[in-house]
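Researcher: Good morning. I'm working through a list of sequences from a screen, and I'd like to move beyond sequence-only analysis. For each chain I'm collecting a predicted structure so we can compare shapes side by side. This is the next one on the list. No need for commentary yet; just the structure.
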Amino acid sequence: MKYEEANKFINSVIENEFHHIQHYEEKGFSDTDKDQKELEDKTTEVFEKLLKSIPEEYRKLINEYSSAAFYEWVNLCRFYFKKGVIAGTTNLNFLKDTNMMEYIE
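Model: Good morning. Structure tokens for this chain:
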């Protein structure tokens, strides 16, 4: 397999797994993780207060901003996920400091 093909394959695997986690595991995490639930509740509370406190003509703009910010953060999460997979599969030097598995130099 050529480098370009391998790179495309790896990126496809990473993207597929990101979507799998996003669609099938995120909801369970949001429902069961106490810290995440508190963060989501606070975000919803503040956003609802903001919408109630502004004139109707600005609500659409605030909703558009919220959606744009959401997609920006999802894209940033995708970046961190990809970089984490790359780091976790290429830089395994940390294994020599653990007793979990044998490290071969």
